[in-house]
């Protein structure tokens, strides 16, 4: 299960006890919202140290945040797009390294959905791979965000994924999105996953092997049975890819 650690720092009482119980039986990953990795405000060292305590307390397997900024002289509570430039790579990579030094662990940064890019001089792919290399961090691969961006910005999503350094992928996200009347796709985590995103997930498994994959649903949450159907589809895609890989390996042998 995945938690947003900002929502749980210092939690006590019934909620704190519930998290303790879950963490004792289910592996946890943490996906943050407020590191402000791309911002110009100094990294909040006190906050990062609080995150470290949380990660250690609950034996969190993977932690990270987004390739965005969310603050400017205070938090904006919105994940805003970075300029795809060499300077932005250096800026964000140095901040990621600072966070990693405090946490004493690598973090996994997520490729974000974006609707405009200020001052773009590099491709999205070059921006992401540049940060991964310069910061020496991992990637949280959001399959839905790749699809959303590929439609909104007109590129092939599988070709994009094939060019990522897959050895750095810690785990994956898959989610639903909203298509507006004018064709723009908005990453909402509030709709059922569409067939094209399921296909992209299956193709990713086929190309690179199975990675841990988390279903995101943040709003319009349906009955549990509907959620479990989508989780079962993730498992089915993983099992199909594992069988196909085993058959291929056996035929080579």
In short:
The chain is of the alpha/beta class. It has helices spanning 13-25, 45-57, 86-103, 124-135, 143-153, 157-162, 195-208, 224-252, and strands spanning 2-3, 29-31, 63-66, 69-71, 75-80, 108-110, 138-142, 169-174, 177-179, 185-187, 213-215.
Order of helices and strands: EHEHEEEHEHEHHEEEHEH
Uncertain regions spanning at least 5 consecutive residues? none
Give the rounded overall mean pLDDT.
93
* Radius of gyration, taken over Cα atoms and rounded to an integer in Å: 18 Å
Q: Ends: how far apart? A: 37 Å
Structure class: alpha/beta
Number of helices: 8
Helix content: 40-55%
Give the overall shape, derived from the CA principal axes. globular
CATH topology of the domain at 2-136: TIM Barrel
- The CATH class of the domain at 2-136 is Alpha Beta
What is the CATH superfamily of the domain at 2-136?
A: Divalent-metal-dependent TIM barrel enzymes
Number of separate strands: 11
- Proper CATH architecture of the domain at 2-136: Alpha-Beta Barrel
Q: Main β-sheet, in a few words?
A: 7 strands, parallel
- Strand share of the residues? 15-25%
Strand order of the largest sheet: 1-2-3-6-7-8-11
